[in-house]
Design brief:
The longest helix has 15 residues. The chain is of the alpha+beta class. The radius of gyration is 54 Å and the shape is rod-shaped. A hairpin with a 5-residue loop joins strand 5 and strand 6. The chain is 12% helix and 30% strand. The protein contains 4 helices and 17 strands.
């Protein structure tokens, strides 16, 4: 009997399943009870349609915009999506592609600086050069010009003009400052050229020469003061100078004592020579006729 009852309950529960709001049960006495469900019906989510591979259509990727060649600036190159600037354009723009003005600090004519505003750099900006202040020099009151005869009498080799080949071989162009070092001669009482400068490089601007002779020792200063001879374009003597020193300077911690003088350049002069003075010449300062050092400045 119980088996039949259970079978009936199973069949009825199957019929009731269609209605999801009721279900059947059997109580303790074996009676079938129909109970209303307190739970809300479960709503199944709608199934998504399955798409086949043929139905799947991929959306096209957005194309990367490459700038047109006509819109690119001259001097630039396009590689993929990057834009590069040629070196020539950078140098032309002075690495200032935006043409913005910049400020540069430049030295002025004194010891300070000046601010210059420019977008083209400082190459095209005129720079105020510092004024060169020449030291004060004087012409000696005992200044002694030498005639051609005096020069040729003391230095017989100058009776003949110096050849152009020797001039090119031994002469050096005159600069703003020229250093001349004279060593003792290998053969005593010989008078070779100790210095040979070409004036043509700075003529006719230069009218005078400032000559400074430094002592060879500190305790007992003696000075090398040469005879100065001027030559023309052909290498022939024009005139000479002696007793041209006008001022003396005592020794310091940085340099030996020195004497200086200002020399006038005669007309038609193209070259200047420096010879050791002969021993018969007298001077009012200690002379060292064999060796010494000179500084010749364009004045």
């Amino acid at each position: 009997m119980r088996f039949v009852t259970a079978l009936i309950c199973t069949v009825m529960s199957t019929l009731v399943v269609a209605d999801e709001r009721f279900y059947t049960t059997v109580d303790a006495q074996g009676r079938v009870q129909v109970i209303k469900s307190e739970q809300s019906a479960i709503v199944e989510a709608p199934k998504q349609p399955v798409l086949s591979k043929e139905s799947v259509v991929s959306e096209p990727e957005p194309k990367q915009q490459i700038p047109d060649g006509s819109s690119m600036k001259q001097g630039t190159r396009q590689v993929d999506t990057d834009t590069y600037v040629d070196t020539e354009l950078l140098e032309q723009k002075n690495f200032n592609l935006d043409d913005k003005k910049r400020f540069y600090f430049l030295p002025n004519s004194g010891f300070g600086t000046q601010v210059v505003e420019s977008k083209d750099g400082v190459m095209n900006t005129p720079i105020v050069k510092a004024e060169i202040v020449k030291p004060i020099a004087y012409v000696s009151s005992n200044y002694l010009p030498l005639s051609i005869e005096d020069v040729q009498r003391w230095y017989p080799q100058l009776k003949q003009c110096i050849s152009q080949s020797d001039i090119k071989k031994h002469s050096k162009p005159l600069k703003d400052s020229n250093n001349i070092w004279v060593k003792p001669p290998l053969i005593p009482d010989t008078f070779e050229i100790d210095g040979f400068l070409a004036l043509s490089s700075m003529m006719p601007v230069v009218k005078q020469l400032r000559v400074v002779s430094f002592a060879s020792t500190y305790k007992k200063p003696a000075f090398y003061l040469p005879i100065i001879v001027f030559l023309d374009e052909g290498g022939c003597p024009v005139a000479g100078v002696w007793q041209y020193w006008s001022r003396a300077h005592i020794a310091t911690d940085k340099q030996y004592a020195s004497v200086e003088g200002l020399i006038n350049i005669p007309a038609q002069s193209a070259y200047v020579l420096f010879y050791r003075p002969i021993k018969t010449l007298k001077a009012d300062i200690p002379l060292s006729v064999d060796s010494g050092s000179l500084v010749v400045e364009a004045y």
